């Protein structure tokens, strides 16, 4: 990867602080290979799924104010859950709090039965991989370098990449369909391509939990569907547990086993899409008048807006 990559390694300590939320990840039993993926998936299909994330009476915010209050929910292994709510409802704050990134926090967050307060940053990083909303890199990293960042948590401070690391990088790049972008700079990619690179990096971190903040944000409709299809494959075929914030209700419905509605920093309701998607809930949470219809492909409910057109005099 050349001189530029080695210069990056020397600056690792400062960069890991800068990209704290994007570098930390979890490592389950084994490495991220097809064999491990298959074994993990077989275990999830053949056994009772255990609770991997448990949140009780969580309140969190910035400085002295709480943005989210009394949040209680749980995730089971291999589950796909989407958090929905209006802008400012606390979706991104919740994702940050669950990773231990906020100081103003009360309540309990347990991962695999362990309170995250008792976990050191590196230990917590081996529990959660995080895909942030698209942002601009201040460095001209190559695509492969960005994906390789996901392996740092499994290496020493200045450790070099092993053959296992390189094998995993190749696998996750194939899985997210970015192998053809290997020689390009991250800043030169489209939004959809960048998002796939960030997902590949999170997969390279090899964690049981995958958090995403607005993965469809700023993407056109074809890229939105493409990203969610990748996520669904990771959940259904690879056994990943996925928690994503989302603003697009209809996009989240067919891919999520459970929805969590946030309103004014509190949980309004939670449950499977077929029970949660009602006119009453949508009006209460999103302040919008909608019609509910059944999607002919998924057979799940979806919404259509009732536009308020001006009267013609």
Looking at CATH, which topology would you report?
A: Rossmann fold
The outline comes out as globular
Counting H and I runs of at least 4 residues, what is the number of helices?
Answer: 13
- Helix percent reads 25-40%
The assigned structural class equals: alpha/beta
Poorly predicted tracts of residues:
1-44
Write out the strand line-up for the largest beta sheet, numbering strands in chain order. Answer: 6-7-8-3-9-10
Order of helices and strands: HHHHEEEHEEHEHHHEHEHEEHHEE
Strand coverage percent: 15-25%
Question: Can you identify the CATH superfamily?
Answer: P-loop containing nucleotide triphosphate hydrolases
Gross CATH architecture: 3-Layer(aba) Sandwich
Mean pLDDT: 82
Main β-sheet, in a few words? 6 strands, mixed
Could you tell me the number of beta strands? 12
Whole-number radius of gyration? 20 Å
> What distance separates the N and C termini?
68 Å
Q: How many domains make up the coordinates?
A: 1
Provide the CATH top-level class: Alpha Beta
Structural description of this entry:
- There is one protein chain.
- The chain is of the alpha/beta class and 313 residues long.
- It has a single domain (2-275), classed as P-loop containing nucleotide triphosphate hydrolases (Rossmann fold), CATH 3.40.50.300.
- It contains 13 helices and 12 strands.
- The protein has helices at residues 2-10, 12-18, 20-23, 34-46, 91-98, 121-125, 143-148, 163-175, 191-204, 221-238, 249-252, 273-276, 279-286, and strands at 51-62, 65-76, 80-85, 104-111, 114-115, 128-131, 209-213, 241-246, 258-263, 266-271, 290-294, 301-305.
- Strands 6-7-8-3-9-10 form a 6-stranded mixed β-sheet, sandwiched between helices. A 4-stranded antiparallel β-sheet has the order 2-1-4-5, covered by helices on one side. A two-stranded antiparallel sheet has the order 11-12.
- Helix 10 links the parallel strand 7 and strand 8 (241-246).
- The protein is globular, with a radius of gyration of 20 Å.
- It starts with a helix and ends in an 8-residue tail after the last strand.
């Amino acid at each position: 990867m050349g001189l530029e990559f080695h210069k990056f390694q020397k600056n690792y300590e400062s960069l890991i602080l800068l990209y704290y939320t994007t570098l930390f990840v979890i490592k389950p039993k084994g490495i991220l290979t097809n064999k491990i993926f298959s074994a993990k998936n077989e275990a999830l299909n053949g056994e009772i799924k255990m609770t991997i994330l448990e949140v009780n009476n969580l309140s969190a915010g910035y400085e002295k104010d709480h943005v989210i209050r009394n949040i209680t929910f749980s995730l089971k292994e291999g589950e796909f859950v989407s958090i929905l709510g209006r802008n400012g409802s606390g979706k991104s704050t919740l994702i940050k709090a669950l990773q231990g990134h906020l100081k103003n926090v009360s309540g309990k967050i347990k991962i695999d039965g362990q309170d995250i307060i008792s976990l050191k940053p590196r230990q917590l990083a081996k529990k959660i991989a995080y895909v942030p909303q698209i942002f601009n890199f201040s460095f001209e990293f190559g695509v492969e370098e960005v994906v390789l960042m996901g392996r740092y948590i499994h290496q020493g401070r200045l450790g070099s990449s092993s053959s296992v690391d390189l094998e995993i990088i190749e696998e996750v790049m194939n899985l997210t369909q970015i192998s053809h972008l290997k020689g390009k700079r991250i800043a030169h990619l489209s939004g959809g391509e960048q998002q796939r690179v960030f997902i590949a990096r999170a997969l390279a971190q090899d964690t049981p939990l995958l958090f995403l903040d607005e993965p469809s944000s700023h993407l056109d409709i074809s890229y939105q569907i493409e990203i969610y299809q990748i996520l669904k494959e990771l959940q259904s075929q690879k056994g990943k547990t996925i928690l994503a914030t989302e603003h697009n209700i209809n996009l989240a419905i067919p891919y999520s086993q459970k929805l969590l509605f946030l309103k004014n920093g509190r949980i309004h309701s939670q449950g499977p899409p077929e029970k949660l998607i009602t006119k009453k809930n949508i009006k209460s949470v999103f302040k919008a008048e909608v019609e509910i219809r059944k999607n002919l492909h998924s057979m799940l409910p979806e919404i259509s807006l009732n536009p308020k057109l001006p009267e013609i005099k």
